[in-house]
Design goal:
single chain; eight-stranded mixed beta sheet; carboxypeptidase; protease; 331 residues; LD-carboxypeptidase; Glucose Oxidase, domain 1; 2 domains; Rossmann fold; Carboxypeptidase_A_C_sf
Amino acid sequence: MFSPLKQGDTIGIYSPSKPASVLAKARYERGKARLQALGFTIKEGLLTGKSDTYRSGTPKERAQELNDLLRDPTVKMILPTMGGTNANSMLPYIDYAALQQTPKILVGLSDVTAILLAIYAKTGIPVFYGPSVASTFGEFPPFVNYTEQYFKELFMQDVPIPYEMPTPPIWTDDRINWLEKTVEKTQHDNAWITVQQGSAEGRLIGGNINTMYGFIGTPFFPQIKEGDILLLEDTSKTIAVVEKNFAMLKLHGFFNNISAIILGKHEQYDDEGTGRKPYDVLLEQLDGLAIPILAEVDCCHTHPLHAMPLGLRVKVDATQKRITFLESWFC
């Protein structure tokens, strides 16, 4: 399938939504420099340094930027600069066959969920819910140090399977120090939360719920199969929007087939004074469905971030608060 990355390998960078290399130039350059310090050659996409206000280019231009990287046999991994809102508009124009001809590791989060799930739906090639260049690797220590450590373990080493996902000792969702570091961020002691006990094994599928809203029910969305483990996360939403999005999944029948749920930490969640957590809203929508649920997992917008393999089998032990990767993504 893939081979571990090594120093000298090329990582391609593209901007599927927001023009991060313009709007957050300092953070983008910091993230790029961190990857270069790991020994990687960086190939910047054709929209680097370009901006069409809220996006980096038209849907076709953004797809062309990605397609150029997909078709380049020297590119071993493709990372987004960051997310945004409009990646779903690229889906009809992506060259899915190119990835099948020259498989490479695709990673991203947030709005990039649309691209990751579409690629998996069209090719069957596993993808990774994980870091982006600006928003993740552009973060400051100490949080980015853990993210980098996990990145090296997953993609630069021959990962021993089964692999147990570590729990970082600290985390933050402070919205400060975006471009330059001015004060230290709050370091919260970390702990995952057992919402419903039990364990399950299955194919991992999912990502950012708000992004799913933009292409669910289309040919670009993978079919949810019996026994799947659903990964769900979001950022900066009110409890009202969280309920709407969980209800959307219920109405589409997602909860009829899955065997467990992994709920990522919700960055800057607004409970509107209710005191209810996202998992409280989820339980209401599940309406008594007794499946394992593990919440507050570090795999999304908060820092540090640990990548998750979409399309491969994992085990969730909600009782013991453990996630184990059961399939290798390397040849």
